[in-house]
Amino acid sequence: MKKIIVTGGAGFIGSNFVHYVVNNHPDVHVTVLDKLTYAGNRENLAGLPEDRVKLVVGDITDAALVDELVSQTDAVVHYAAESHNDNSLKDPFPFVQTNLIGTYTLIEACRKHGVRYHHVSTDEVYGDLPLREDLPGHGEGAGEKFTPETAYNPSSPYSSTKAGSDLLVRAWVRSFDLQATISNCSNNYGPYQHIEKFIPRQITNILSGIRPKLYGEGKNVRDWIHTNDHSAAVWLILTKGKIGETYLIGADGEKDNKTVLELILELMGQPKDAYDQVKDRAGHDLRYAIDATKLREELGWQPEFTDFREGLADTIAWYTENKDWWQAEKSAVEESYRKNGQ
Ligand code: NAD
Ligand code: DAU
Questions:
Q1: What share of the chain is helix, strand, coil (3-state, %, to 5)?
Q2: 24, 70, 179, 180: which has the fewest Cβ within 10 Å?
Q3: In degrees rounded to 5, what are phi and psi of residue 223?
Q4: Residue 275 annotated as catalytic
Q5: Which atom in ligand 1 lies closest to the alpha carbon of residue 59?
Q6: CA of 154 relative to ligand 2 center, distance in Å
């Protein structure tokens, strides 16, 4: 695999993957196809060698552009998406357009040109799990986590469009022999994440003199994984995964939101209670948790960045040292949340 297209490669996770490939696989050339929406940023690719990484600014729903690019590549790794649940509750249309039509456009081109396709998706397609405190024995038994066999049950416009895109890929594998794999990953954290998302929002709030905002009581649980570990897993699945298979990616990082926020406050030298509780998200998923046994046992993957406290401290340091990357957008992001009571 010498030439790959990375869609959404100027976003948070996609750009991390591009850096991962450039640093670890010197013979691979990357074409990033990215529309540079509010979530995409050229700076995320700064410093990468121009002879190995090319940025094409364009839309994954542009069939002619996609066809031309796919005809010249060995593989497509598809990250591009509208990715934020809160935005999808305000205006679902871009989610339908990019996540469903965009995926359709890419898999049609891959089918036509016989190109390998990897579909990056989310654990949110499975809906949510009960909180452990509500389970007998606190949920330490079988069935407490998502597995590749868990039934799809998405909650939000975002997660339902991601679920729909996964199902398109599954159908294209079965009906047209599309050479595809799918991965469903849990919540990523690390540098370059847009400040609309939970962890960077709270860090940049504190850096801006704004009190952090916790939805509801903060009991909701997310299964955190460092984005570098996600990138390594996607490369492994792309190169060693079985065609037609779904792999779940997660690093056993379950934490409730209140605990994460209190850790951010502690690491940033703030009192434990220096935050506001704000309006909860509509339809807020309670808990996500990934069983990554298949990925670990079949492909030998294991996470490297398992010290959450250390990863969070590094992430805080990155936002502190890179204010130019986020400061211009901060007031507009907060104003939009404020109008929503959040
Ligand atoms: P992001 O919002 O930071 O980046 C999305 C990128 O896609 C941006 O660069 C944007 O410009 C680009 N894009 C959007 N619409 C496009 C279009 N129509 N054409 C071309 N480019 C377009 O998102 P992220 O958090 O990096 O997520 C990337 C992928 O990973 C998504 O598919 C998401 O569902 C999936 N995922 C994310 C997480 C997470 O925790 N963030 C976890 C699991 C899976
Ligand atoms: O699970 C994978 C998913 O993780 C990805 O598919 C999504 O693209 C990604 O955005 C993320 O979705 P979440 O909705 O879990 O992430 P978010 O950062 O928006 O919120 C994380 C948790 O924090 C969630 O329970 C809501 C809560 N929250 C969020 C914000 C922005 C707050 O309490 N306060 C906030 O200000």
A1: 45, 15, 40
A2: 24
A3: -105, 90
A4: no
A5: 19
A6: 15
Please tell me whether residue 277 adopts helix, strand or coil conformation: strand
74: CB partners within 8 A, 6+ apart: 1, 2, 3, 4, 115, 116
Pairing of strands 221-223, 254-256: antiparallel
Name residue, tokens 């990715």.
83
Q: How far is the CA of 161 from the centre of ligand 1 (A)?
A: 13
Residues whose beta carbon lies within 6 Å of some atom of ligand 1: 7-8, 10-14, 34-37, 39-40, 59-61, 79-83, 98, 102, 120, 122, 162, 185, 187-188, 194
| Domains of the chain with CATH codes | 3-194+224-253+287-307 (3.40.50.720)
DSSP letter for each residue of 155-214: -SHHHHHHHHHHHHHHHHHHHH---EEEEEE--EESTT--TTSHHHHHHHHHHTT---EE
Q: Of these residues, 59, 82, 108, 124, which one is catalytic? A: 124
User: Does this model's pTM top 0.85?
Assistant: yes
